[in-house]
């Protein structure tokens, strides 16, 4: 039964929530396939001898490839059929995952990680843009949040790599994930459709897209002052996020003299559970607020930063473990507000035909910033800078991002936005 608006027309195109479910499963698989290798270090090094630096290069090469190609991957989703770009992406990375199980040298393993970066770069921008096509004013942020929940769930299940490698063999999980992904691609091919812009329904014969040129897309985006503000704010918030993710376990271990296991538990278990709730809460809240205030989707992340920055700042002065954990839980909750609203915010700033390209550029920046953020934290520690000072710097960085978001000007959401 379709939900109908007051006018009697469907409030959403048919299959709008099915699209979200399908892409959430894809997002979970996307992150699971990339993460599992990091949790089976000992098993892989035993099977394929390599140095610690080479093992680190496996992840770095993926991240660099993924980041550099993200803007172009977004452009492909704007220029061609989004659903077919997604299907091709899932098929290729699943095939590469399956191939990974049969590598016997470091060079072969490195090649599969680079190919994984190429194929996975195409998924997120296209998936977010397709959700934005199906979910208009009333449900866009919540739908995006559900996709992000799928992505975070994939990250959370990354431990399965180490568990399976310990119980069976290091390459076992790559076989199963690869075969499942290829089978899922076949299912997606027959169920995932682009939205017809002429009728608002999904179908094979989608209305022709406006012609999109990569150079024109980049030029158009960087002419928008608000997009530049969003890009810089996203980068600054990325520095903070990676500092927290990369160094919070060490912070708990050293400041409160916890065991390595307990420090990891405090830094991840509570953090990710609250972040998942934040994705859904932030999406639902901004959808509701945007019905009465066009800036609702922008104001929810702004409020999130106003909640998170003081908590990170206060945590650097507190010496009571439960209070510090609560501070970082509030940060995790509020950080999710911008994750679930970033594509909806872009929809209020950039032209419709450049949405995936715009997010691809953000993805590129996030990958570069990720490496810089973790490295910067290590460099500051080498200089004997106290972790408390690093988190105070992070709080100030969040305030700068807040100011930039306050300067963003949005356009009104129309019926087809």
List the helices and strands and how they pair.
Blueprint: H1 16-35, H2 41-47, H3 52-79, H4 82-100, H5 106-120, H6 123-134, H7 140-156, H8 160-167, H9 172-191, H10 214-222, H11 225-256, H12 260-290, H13 296-315, H14 321-347, H15 355-382, H16 387-406
Can you walk me through this structure?
By secondary structure, this protein is mostly helical. It has 2 domains: 16-209, Growth Hormone, Chain: A, CATH 1.20.1250.20; 215-406, Growth Hormone, Chain: A (Up-down Bundle), CATH 1.20.1250.20. 75% of the residues lie in helices and 0% in strands. It has 16 helices and no strands. It has helices spanning 16-35, 41-47, 52-79, 82-100, 106-120, 123-134, 140-156, 160-167, 172-191, 214-222, 225-256, 260-290, 296-315, 321-347, 355-382, 387-406. Helix 4 (82-100) runs antiparallel to helix 9 and helix 12 runs parallel beside helix 14 (321-347). It is globular and about 55 Å long.
Quick summary:
With 417 residues, this protein is an all-alpha fold.
CATH topology of the largest domain: Growth Hormone, Chain: A
Number of continuous helical runs:
16
Q: What is the strand tally?
A: 0
Q: What is the structural class? A: mainly alpha
Order of helices and strands: HHHHHHHHHHHHHHHH
Cα-to-Cα separation, first versus last residue? 24 Å
Shape: globular
* CATH C-level category of the largest domain: Mainly Alpha
Q: Which residue ranges are poorly predicted, with pLDDT under 50 across at least 5 consecutive positions? A: 199-208
Name the CATH superfamily classification of the largest domain: MFS general substrate transporter like domains
- The average pLDDT is 86
Report the major sheet: none
Whole-number radius of gyration?
21 Å
């Amino acid at each position: 039964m379709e939900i109908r608006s007051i006018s009697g027309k469907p409030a959403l195109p048919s299959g709008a929530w099915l699209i979200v479910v399908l892409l959430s499963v894809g997002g979970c698989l996307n992150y699971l396939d990339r993460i599992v290798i990091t949790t089976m270090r000992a098993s892989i090094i035993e099977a394929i001898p390599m140095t610690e630096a080479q093992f680190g290069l496996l992840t770095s090469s993926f991240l660099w490839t993924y980041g550099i190609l993200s803007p172009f991957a977004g452009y492909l989703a704007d220029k061609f059929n989004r659903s077919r770009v997604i299907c091709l992406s899932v098929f290729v990375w699943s095939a590469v995952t399956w191939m990974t199980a049969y590598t016997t040298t470091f060079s072969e393993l490195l090649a599969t990680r680079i190919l994984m970066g190429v194929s996975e770069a195409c998924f997120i921008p296209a998936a977010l843009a397709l959700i934005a096509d199906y979910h208009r004013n009333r449900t866009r942020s919540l739908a995006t949040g559900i996709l992000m929940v799928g992505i975070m769930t994939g990250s959370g299940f990354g431990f399965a790599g180490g568990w399976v490698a310990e119980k069976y063999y290091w390459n076992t999980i790559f076989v199963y994930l690869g075969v499942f992904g290829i089978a899922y691609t076949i299912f997606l091919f027959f169920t995932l459709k682009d939205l017809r812009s002429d009728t608002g329904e999904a179908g094979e014969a989608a209305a022709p897209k406006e012609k999109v040129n990569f150079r024109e897309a980049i030029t158009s985006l960087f002419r928008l002052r608000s997009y530049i503000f969003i890009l810089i704010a996203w980068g600054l918030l990325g520095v903070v996020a990676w500092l927290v993710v990369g160094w919070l376990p060490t912070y708990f271990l050293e400041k409160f003299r916890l065991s390595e296991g307990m420090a990891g538990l405090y830094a991840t278990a509570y953090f990710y559970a609250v972040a998942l709730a934040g994705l859904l809460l932030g999406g639902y809240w901004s959808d509701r607020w945007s019905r009465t205030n066009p800036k609702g989707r922008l104001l929810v992340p702004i409020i999130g930063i106003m909640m998170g920055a003081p908590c990170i700042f206060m945590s650097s002065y507190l010496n009571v473990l439960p209070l510090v954990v609560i501070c970082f839980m509030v940060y995790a909750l509020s950080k999710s507000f911008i994750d679930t609203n970033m594509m909806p915010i872009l929809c209020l700033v950039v032209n419709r035909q450049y949405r995936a390209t715009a997010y691809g550029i953000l993805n590129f920046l996030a990958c570069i910033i990720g490496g810089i953020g973790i490295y910067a934290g290590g460099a500051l520690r080498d200089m004997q800078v106290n972790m408390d000072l690093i988190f105070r710097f992070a709080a100030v960085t969040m305030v700068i991002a807040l100011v930039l978001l306050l300067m963003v000007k949005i356009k009104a959401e129309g019926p087809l936005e």
